[in-house]
## 1
Amino acid sequence: MLSRTADHLFWMARYMERAENVARMLDVNYRMSLLPQSANDIERQWRAALDTMGQLERYEKGGGAYQPLEVMRFMVLDRQNSSSIYSCLRAARENAHAVRGTLTSELWETTNATWIAMRSFNQVGLEGDGASEFFEWVKFRSHLSRGVTVGTMLRDESLHFIRLGTFLERGDSTARLLDVKFHELSTSDKHDDAAEYYQWSALLRSVSAFEIFRRVYRDVITPTRVVELLTLRRDMPRSLACCMEEVYELLQRVSNHRSAETERRAGELAASLRFGRIDEIFEEGLHEYLTAFIESIADLGNQISNDFLVPVVAQPESQSQQQTL
Amino acid sequence: MSATQFFNEMTDFGGGVRPHYEKFSDWLQTTPPQRLADKREAADALFHRGGITFAVYGEAEGTERLIPFDVIPRIIPAQEWVDMAAGLRQRVKALNAFIHDIYHDQEILKAGRIPAEQVLNNAQYRPEMKGVDVPGNIYAAIAGIDVVRAGVGEYYVLEDNLRVPSGVSYMIEDRKMMMRLFPELFAKYRVAPVEHYPDLLLDTLRAVSQKGVTNPSVVVLTPGAYNSAYFEHAFLAQQMGVELVEGRDLFVDDGHVYQRTTQGPQKVDVIYRRVDDDFLDPLAFRADSMLGVPGLLDVYREGGVTLANAIGTGVADDKSIYPYVPDMIDFYLGEKPLLNNVPTYMLRKKEDLAYTLENLGDLVVKEVHGAGGYGMLVGPASTKEEIEDFRKRILAAPEKYIAQPTLSLSACPTFVERGIAPRHIDLRPFVLSGKEVRFVPGGLTRVALKEGSLVVNSSQGGGTKDTWVLES
């Protein structure tokens, strides 16, 4: 398969997954901001969310207030913000468009239809109940595109590179979410059991893990268990362990004469999660652990680009020419 | 122009329905207009979701528009197509022979049938191609020949497209759409299929690979996702099951062309290129091209790869060469042309220029190198100012223009805002030349949606119709 094609497939999947994760992140924040708490806490949460998504500085420059609606408008609709859901869905669609011939028509049409619907969504849609509904819609469209991908694409390299993008992005996102939320919840102004319960359960819900937590632990929600579930549980589909296991396996499938080192690094990371212990993670410090993990993901992303895809350089601008019809 | 002055595809000059439209006409009369309107809307939504779009120049980059699709088919009786097909085959054979000749012995110039300077000084003539042999002497493996019907129904070739003719994907999508919207019509008519075009194309491309290549690897080269015809490039690559590449995916090494893949470099044997000559190789042509492959021309000249179409075909579809195609048919094939040429005034000739300037209001004037309906004057449809404006442009550089009588193009009933009304149409059949000349019956019918308009180009607001060639 063409390296550029693989590159577009990989990024199409990453952007779709990113749109979903931004929606999840905003959703959990929005739900938490509805709980009784100090204005200070609310502001802190939104700042932390923006920070996680790498957008705090830009938002501050824009002088926006730390109000749910305003931050959400920025993270959902802002065209200049490359991490907004609008931008992610556009990028997913642009990448799909560039390789539409490689996609099944169902997958292409799903991606294109998502983008067409996104274009007609506006700020009014975020008011009232709109925000939660919209986040549900984004998640649903992402589920749909993943389902169409798995259900219709030929199981060859093209599928593998799509899946690589999905799991690499998801691992990164779960780590970031956990990092910011754990810090926030363990340092918030007031500590009462009820508030803590709601906040941790909101976090679990945001990664579709609330019911899973109950089934796995059959016990009360504690921060340690939440972290264990989202890092080390291999059967939890959004955990770091699960994502890395998929990445490692996919890399073995697409293996080429240059990729041995990349496979080794992915395997090492997957093994460390597979055989890791939660108390060791806390001994090292969760924040330090997650920071190192996020760096490893970035490193793997670069390795994959260099071995298989289009190495990261400035892309030439398109030249237009006429084809008469 | 009054309704009786042009040939109507569905009704004869007495107002009666032509035999091949009878069943359709009956169906139309029993179909409520609302159903047609609903179906057209459904078609738009489906085309939109499928991203079956066309980028329009002069608008913001990335602007994608639907080509309006008309739900009333253009129907061609079996015998008419048989006759037209023979004419197309003859024409394309002669054009390929001409291109081979002018890059080799130039017999037709020596014989004085075409003025040598007309060919050799033409901007589209590529001296780089002199003496280069291409497989099977096929230069235009894919040709789009624009055919119109005028007067009392005779066909004329309006223009030959031998560089990167586009539109074939719409021919296929229109058929799929019609079958989806109105399956009952296909039970009433035996319509010749067109959906196998990509198979014929792949076969043709493989047939023009270099000698000694077994199991040739074919790619489609596109300028990229922002090109106006990108949908078609992606469509054809997908339908043929070959890679869609951009210039940056290819490189030249040791006399061959390779594509960069996830498993390392892989050799490419045939490039169906949808990139213009000028952009193909920055080392040979436009140095600022980022769409091409550095070194491609050298490999090509040495026979390391096939380009379809070949470099330098533009000289044969130039509007200044068009008037000589009947001479080519006579010269190379010793045959009489089966398809008419439109009488053409070449404004570099004094007497033609004088005649044209006197009759601007009745003529169509075109730029010799123009395409896509840009830069042309349709006298009868223009205001005095527009005509005077164009007169100045002609006087500034008469050699850049040709003029033709305004043909009263045939019209086909078309579903428009106010119901069903005749609109002018043309036809672009796609002619494939490999081991033999092949095509799917019919082609792309384009329709000028504006009342009275003769310009069918999609860039000028034209639409398309499904084209039915009936099986005998």
## 2
Amino acid sequence: MIKVWYIAVVACLFCLSTARGQLPTAELHSINPPAVVSGASLEVSLSGSNLEEISTLYFLDPDIKSKPVMLPESEYRIHPQQSGLRFTVTIPESPIEKFIPVRAAGYFGLSTSRPLLILPAGSKVISDRAGSAHHKLATAPALALNTKATGTTDSKQTDWWKISVKKDQRILVHCLAERIDSQADAVLSIVDGQGVELERNRDYVGRDPMLDFTAPADGNYWIGVHDTFYNGGTNFAYVLEASTRPWIDAVYPPAGKAGETFEATLIGRNLPGGSPGEGLQIDGKLVETLNVKVAVPPTPPKPEFSNQSPSHTLVAGFPYRYKKSNPVQIGISDHPVQTGDSGFVPPFAVAGRFDTEGEIDTFRFQGKKGTAYWIDVVADRVAGHIDPYIIVEKLSADKESGKKVKEGDDTSNNGGATFLNMSRDLALGFTADADAEYQVVVANQYASAGAEKNYWLSVRQAKPDFEVVAVAERPYLDARQAYPAAPLLRKGGTFPLQILLRRKDGFSGAVTISSEGLPEGVTCPSVTLSGNESAARLVFAAATDAKPWHGNVTVTATAGKLRHPVYLGTLVAGMTDYNISRQRTRLDPDFPLSVSGAEAAPATLEVGGERTFTVEIGKKLEIPVSLTNKNGIEGTLAITPVGLSGMRRPPVLNLATKDQQGKLTIDFTSKKNVFTPKQGISNFILKGTGTTKYKRNPGATERAAAQKKHTEALVAKYTKLVAESKTAVAAKKKELDGLTKNLQTASPDAKPEVAKAVAAAKAGYEAAVKESGELEEKRVQSEKEKAAAIAKHKAANALSSGKNTKIALWSLPLTVEVKPAPKK
Amino acid sequence: MKTHIISLLAVAIVSLATAQENPAKKLSCNVEDVALNDSRSGQQLIVTDLSGKIPKDVTRDIDFSIEPEGIVSINENGYLLPLGNGTATITIPGSDVTVVARISGQGSSGTVNFTNDVVPLFTKYGCNGGGCHGKSGGQRNFRLSLFGYEPWNDHEWLVRESRGRRLSPAAPENSLLLMKATGEIPHEGGIRLEKQSADYSTLVDWIRQGMIHNAEATLQVEKISVYPTELVADPGTQQQLAVTAYFSDGSSKDITRTAIYEANQETMAEVDELGLVTLKSETGSTSVMVRFQEHVAVYRATIPLGATIDNLPEPENFIDEQIFTKLSLLGLPPSDVADDATFLRRVTIDIAGRLPATEEVDVFLTDKSPDKRAAKIDALLDSPDYSAYFAQKWAGILRNKRAKDTYQRGTYAFHEWIREHLEANTPYDELVSKVVTASGEIGRNPAVGWYRSVKDNKEQMQDIAQVFLGIRMQCAQCHHHPYEKWSQDDYYGFAAFFTTVGRKRGEQPDEEIIYHRRVTAGMQNPNTKKTLKPTALGEEPLELDASTDPRMALAEWLTSKENPWFAQMLVNRYWKHFFSTALVEPEDDMRVTNPASHPALLGALADHFAESGFDLKELIRTICNSRTYQLSSDPNDHNVTDSQNFSRFYPKRLQAEVLLDAINLVSSSQSVFTNQPAGVSATRLPDDKFNRDSYFLTVFGRPEMDSACECERVDDANLAQSLHLINSGTMQQKLSHDGGRAAALAKDAKRADEERIAEIYRYAVSRLPNETEIKAAKSHLERKRVKAAEKKDDDLTPEKAEREAFEDILWALLNTKEFLFNH
């Protein structure tokens, strides 16, 4: 590996204001351009925070390569330097368009991820460099059909792109912004030459817009892109395309039986061979249908990287593409998916669609007394914009009326305030209390209708299962904050992840979370969530002598024969106040972990003895706590239990750093609004919050000092050389003047000779002047470099000399068995 | 409504014809046969002289002849009272009018009915008004239901409350109620009742008879009527009204003496407590509201000017036919049709919310085609400026308020949604349905933005009623509507449509999802504790199951062509937009007791609108193509005071946003708004938040979008506005910035002064300056130049003087009424 020194170190110093609240972790905010053609190389640049000493980009696919773009060699730089956060990425050929996650690897390990759009080999992409020419129709750059343009929105402006379209040609204008983690909330419009708006769209795929435009006449039209609030800049990237490629809005039925091939109708636009004959519409636009056979894999493949929330990504399904269309998710069912409205015998699956506003669908089946049924509806997670609502009714003997048995709406959010993880779909169970005909009523809470408003529903006996997401967030967060983080271990430190367990079909078993593939010096005790738990924390811990490392680890959730991979859930962007910001969450298909090679944790919070306790309700539990202070905790560390079920106001142990030992007492007496202990086994963890004097990247200061010294030496060198050169110039001048004088008085015979000497002296003089000028330029440049180096050193020094920084220390997970109060 | 004006005209025309055929005096009386069967009844007689050009009430001038005597008496106001049992014949000498009065039941007081005889007296004497015992909690521990709408409560409070001390059946005259009312003992409300009056006797009789309520035996008043309903009458004329109540058993009774009268415009007519109307001199139409219990009726009077009209333009459409017919009736000559320049500026501002571009002015003024005005109207309606301008109007009405920063995405989306629908000319009924039935989240269905702004079910109902029907239901929340037929049951039954509106968390904080909760809709009347089913106004309650969203049924009823209010409300609103004055004022308070100035026109416009498929652009096209709209605002000798007959165009101050954009255009400057594109027009700002960005918008009355009433927008001119225009930093900056028009004109020395002055006029007032104006402007330029040349002021360089001079001219023009008003 090439040893390089990084301009990025200094570049990122400007980002530090946001990191002063806690120990930094690397956050990648944007990749520009966000789309790369496969089978080729392209230079990309990054922005983010704490991206110091980024040496490479990190991809799950080892065949994807990247290397930093270097500045040309220069005597002013003591070591080779990287040109900002720029990298050349080489992607192997891909036949399909897809997103892959990218992370930056540097001083703070692996960063959070950002999606990179990989395009099939041969795709046409233009990088927007039109600048303000975009702001007027007259100067707007041209965008050829089926060519992608990458750009960023400009503040207070609309980016205009000119396209040429034939009469009656249907084009779909796609704008990817949310899907590439851009901050832009894009709005698309299309206008004619008079500026008359012909189409406009705000949200179509999530918050990304799409325009469906059929040209009324041959000619030029202009596509406008702007952020909803007319914000712009590096983090407001978009990918734009005016496409004639096929687009699938929906597939009906939206699911098929695992391992079988089923007849499906594609509903979309520009579908080769598609027919508008059915007259279906989406948002007032006529859409085409095309009948195809779809082969369903026997088991769900690993989820593709997407901007959907974890609850959406984890639904059993697979991506389907028709020719060069967009991917559309098709569900995988345990049963054939029927499309009729009668003849249902459990277990069964059925598809439905809301064709008119306010429509409800009903499905009747014969229930058997004492049988537990589960009804699972999948709509929001795979298909159109639907919010299903289910009512189960038991029909009267004459089938004329129904008595409500159960109803439900939405899958709850299991991520709490900081990590929104829910869907509008739901599953509900009921037990038939009689042999009778039952009816499932499905309504759409949005009351919307359209060709894409479809769903599939299954009625079956319970198939208990679960899904697990691990969430990484900054270890220390102020109130109402939520920020993503890629797990980073400092030597001797820990990094906790929230484990969110969603139980399905009444699953009530214990689930064990364990990890594999950890590097040497890193441990991660397994955590077992008891039958009444749905959340816990998994903690990675690094030994004090752990070696620097970054890579992927494997985390698995097991319950008996059930075994599922655990993926990392992440917030797309941080929030200073989750009460006012939109939360975007998604699933990363990798599970990154980094161990810092340079930094050690400020302290280690440990629990003495075993980490398993037993307590009776009404009694107190004392937990011995020790603190190994390595880098200095300022003042006290406030230690509280986190995650204890029923705990609303946790007790606090304020541990003075000089004490290093203490006991946290938890009273398991039920007290309103404080603690309502629950019987059974609970996982929890101790969190200690305090302040440390954090010395950031001392190595950067050393390197800055070396650079400063180097430039100082250069200044001295060139100052001296310039002085010498000036003396030489003066001598040459004197010589030239003398010879010139001689030439005037020389005899005719001697004149040629003297003239020759004058010419030579003149040349010598001019060369000396030139050399002196060049040396002066170098001296001036050295002075500039020196000033810059001094500034950089000063900044680096300020950081590495230590700043009070809030921190949170986390213990390893603890378990307590809460027993009932002794009988009196 | 339509029939009213027809009958009005018919009376006038018939009477005119009658007068021509038979020059002898011709009288008529409002009744021919009177039957009174108790001593408290009476009958108002009204004698009308039909001999003249205009029918005239001559009741007070008549000497009635009564045969035999002793059965009835008639006072100087023509009010007939019974004296004894029998039949009397009343005649008027010199005419063929005969009235037969059949009197019975005299000699005994008869049973006094609490609801129909007693309670109306409390209303008549103001006892149960909002400022007295009718206010919530009553007055001095004695309360009555407001305007007597709850007689059962009144009876309870009168008879039983305070241990029954208010009434004394043993000695009725000693009752606290009567002694207070007659001032025998101190009464904060003063003397309300004379002891000798018939009303006093009625109360005494009721107490003596045992203070019976007997609600079951009470005849329900089903309606009341007033005679005459409408008339054309000369200024100064007096007209006696007669009011009749019609009961549930088919009987009727004169209630002229117990009904309540209220003139709608006291500058045009006054009315006394006995129903005698005195018309004043202002030309036009006015009305008097008559109220009895919860029933109302209206008398309308039209006061003509009587001038000769020989300049009526050729009617372009039915609007002109209606307006010009009335002007003819009134004898009120209209102003001439406005010139092209005035028309262009007016219609561009009214449809597109902007000044015409100078190129538009040039093209339009040189265009010789006869239909160029219609073509311009079409072009403006097809322009994006139309939808933007009217989206701003509707965003205010639909309360697109950014109450929190987190609302911003939604307010932008909702505003855009409105704009897109207006641009696509979505039929109004469809547009309204989408708002009323909106479900989902704001990103996909921005129409739910209305439900985010208006959260309370009652408020939702009130807004819907006011915005789309012009019915103000607010009063009926606590008591029966005082000027309308709406009861509390009507209020809560109508609000019940919204009781299944559910909300749940949306994609981000404050972006909630609106949905139909699957419960049975209903709302409780807190007074009766009865839960009311969804009931459209004036309709029967709906039987809806829990799965049915009642808003669907509401939308269907609301937007039906049969709905009497829906189309009328919209056309009235739009009429006001273009004419400053609505046919019914205020535009969203349409009720029987607040009649239109031109009822037939209102009806015709509504019919036209409904028949067009609720086509908003067609409505605007119809209005703007009328000659009425195109009349000059310059008054003639007769119509300077006209404010309701549309005999001329009424100038209106430019709306805040339009004015700001106009100033920016003329001064060649821009206003900067947060999270909006550079150079955005103020008319395109989506929500109220920008009022906080711009003091200009605030001071010129851009609405805060707190209510559904367009009255929130301040169109008046005031001192703060004048000061802002004259010497604010904002104006100074716009006039004097380096990239501005003044700077550019000052630098452009190659062009003649006249040309540069003309440019300012073309931008500001869409016309070329006249000679006087050019002379004045040139004179100012010259003065500045001389001053600079004289070098009396070191700072005043010739360049600076030139620029300042143009700034001054701009400033002066921007402060003219011609610029500030649409005229």
